[in-house]
Write a structure and sequence with these properties.
three-stranded antiparallel beta sheet, DUF2007, 3 helices, globular, DUF2007 domain-containing protein
Length: 71
């Protein structure tokens, strides 16, 4: 698994997961529990992981949909 995205924006991860799912790319969200423990005030980022073989394709999907990975 490779990290595709790390963000404190809780609206971005569902968007990205939806875009990836439409393309048949599986993803897995990490650090959800830590984010909840800190009270969901946005201090701790969540990470979205994809399979190593899907990383480049996932980046292209996000680029084509205007999602910046520089967050």
């Amino acid at each position: 698994m490779e990290e595709l995205l790390r963000t404190t924006d809780i609206t971005l991860i569902p968007l990205v997961r939806s875009l990836l799912q439409e393309e048949g790319i599986d993803s897995f969200e990490l650090d959800v529990n830590m984010s909840i423990l800190e009270g969901s005030i946005g201090i701790l980022p969540r990470r979205l992981m994809v399979r190593s073989g899907d990383l480049n394709r996932a980046r292209v999907v996000l680029f084509e949909n205007g999602v910046s990975l520089d967050r």
